[in-house]
Write a structure and sequence with these properties.
Protein name: Lipoprotein
Strand content: 15-25%
CATH superfamily of the largest domain: Periplasmic binding protein-like II
CATH class of the largest domain: Alpha Beta
Subcellular location: Membrane
Keywords: Lipoprotein, Membrane, Palmitate, Signal
CATH architecture of the largest domain: 3-Layer(aba) Sandwich
Pfam families: Lipoprotein_9
Distance between the termini: 39 Å
Radius of gyration: 19 Å
Helix content: 25-40%
Number of helices: 8
Strand order of the largest sheet: 2-1-3-12-4-13
Main location: membrane
CATH topology of the largest domain: D-Maltodextrin-Binding Protein, domain 2
């Protein structure tokens, strides 16, 4: 991977990463979550492996016992299953998504998932193994973008902010392909978010969610041709539960730990490349 243009990520505000899905199935031992009537039972949380699962494993191994919390982490490389198994009670909570994605998912699937506490931001980035800078993209070039509505809008805005395409006036991060006013001859290909990194060789450039970039051993600060800015970005990733479970004592313990100084330091130390940024605070319902 070539080192490329660094676009600074302001350490502030709320944002990030979100979502799409591979055709991965749920782990076989996810069929039963903890006993809801037993508040001392293990808390089962579905999460993207990186960085969400990594952070939860840190909490599990280093912090949970002090709070009397038993934590079970269930990794998913899929952005659809975690909300479904949370809604039907197979797991107690999930940690992988941002608000625009959740709003769309709840509306389209009739689920009732609500955010609890913000934890991190993962800036969306443009990556390539074929070009060294965005200006190398010409008519006939190909770019892949995540195909879920929230991340596709983010991706198109990122391209527009960097002069690759032009969007219709007044269109922002809710953009659709039909909102592209001028693609300058560049072909935009839609892929499930989890496939943008594995299939990067198939296109001239790919817009990849932060967690999938990390999983593909990409370093946003050095490998990204462009990164979205964190400032005023509404894509914070949060802990989420089925509506009505927000006051579960175990959820409150986990929310407190996920916003602890120890987790902040862990994120800053582990993700020094700017791929993950702490974004603590209450999540908007």
């Amino acid at each position: 991977m070539r080192n490329t243009i660094k676009i600074s990520v302001a350490v502030a505000a709320v944002t990030a990463v979100a979502l799409g899905a591979s055709a991965c199935s749920a782990p076989s031992d996810t069929t039963a979550s903890s006993d809801k009537s037993d508040k001392n039972a293990p808390l089962v949380v579905a999460a993207s492996p990186t960085p969400h699962g990594t952070i939860l494993d840190f909490v599990k191994n280093k912090l949970a016992a002090k709070e009397g919390l038993k934590l079970v982490v269930k990794p998913f490389n899929d952005y659809k299953i975690p909300n479904k198994v949370t809604d039907d009670g197979q797991v107690d909570a999930n940690f992988f998504q941002h608000k625009p994605f959740l709003d769309t998912f709840n509306k389209e699937n009739g689920t009732h998932i609500v955010p609890v506490v913000n934890v991190l931001i993962e800036p969306l980035g443009v990556y390539s193994k074929k070009i060294d800078k965005l200006s190398d993209l010409k008519s006939g070039s190909t770019i892949s973008v995540p195909n879920d509505p929230s991340n596709e809008g983010r991706a198109l805005k990122l391209l527009a902010d960097n002069g690759v395409i032009t969007l219709k006036p007044g269109v922002g991060s809710d953009a659709k392909l039909t909102d592209v006013k001028d693609n300058k001859g560049i072909k935009i290909t839609e892929l499930e978010a989890a496939q943008t990194a594995p299939r990067i060789d198939d296109v001239d450039a790919a817009i990849i969610n932060g967690n999938f970039a990390i999983g593909a051993h990409l370093k946003p600060s050095t490998d990204a041709l462009a990164l979205e800015k964190a400032t005023d970005n509404p894509y914070a990733n949060f802990l989420a539960v089925k509506k009505g479970n927000e006051n579960d004592p175990r959820i409150k313990k986990l929310a407190k730990l996920l916003n602890s100084p120890e987790v902040k330091k862990f994120i800053q130390d582990k993700y020094k490349d700017g791929s993950v940024i702490p974004a603590f605070g209450p999540a908007k319902s």
